[in-house]
Specification:
- The protein is of the alpha/beta class.
- 35% of the residues lie in helices and 26% in strands.
- Helix 4 crosses helix 5.
- The protein is elongated.
């Protein structure tokens, strides 16, 4: 999942601060449009934000995000990592943000929440099953065609399947 870190950030906020957040993916992710919505539940009150998602927000994107905030209020900018000066820009412009580590800021007429100070976390990469890659499937297909391959050395298996020797051990 491309934006899995948003779900992890919302899980952190729920676990540590009892603020429920639900991510809804946008249907048309075109330029100048929002990527989705987040609906927060705070003390049985629902607060919905349109969300612009970036991997990392840079200074040259701030004007574009400010225009997006004017077009699609209320806007929340979400990124895996947001630098402190960019956070200050968002505070001054009253644009909500959500960071991948669970830091977030939101402000509306009734609510002001600023959760900041958590260190940036590196997300664990998902381990994939290498048997179902292109080379893995080649070897599996050869084994299904000739089950005697299982008794051969890795080098012989790699030769028969026409794959690299290092791939046999991974499969």
């Amino acid at each position: 999942m491309e934006k899995e870190w948003i779900h992890k950030a919302l899980d952190i906020i729920r676990d540590e601060h009892q603020i429920e957040g639900r991510w809804i993916t946008g249907e048309n992710n075109q330029e100048g449009k929002v990527d989705g919505k987040i609906i927060f539940t705070i003390d049985n009150q629902y607060i919905a934000y349109n969300v612009a998602v970036k991997n990392e927000i840079r200074y040259h994107q701030l004007d574009q995000l400010q225009q997006l905030a004017e077009k699609h209020p209320p806007l929340m900018c979400s990124a895996k990592r947001i630098f402190p000066k960019i956070k200050a820009f968002f505070w001054n412009k009253q644009i909500a943000y959500l960071e991948g580590n669970g830091n977030f800021y939101l402000r509306n007429s009734k609510t002001l929440i600023l959760l900041d100070g958590k260190k940036t976390r590196e997300l664990e990469k998902e381990t994939t099953n290498k048997a179902f890659t292109k080379t893995g499937l080649r070897l599996i297909f050869e084994i299904l065609r000739n089950d005697k391959l299982l008794n051969l050395t890795y080098r012989a298996m790699a030769e028969k399947a026409k794959i690299g020797l290092g791939n046999v051990n991974n499969i």
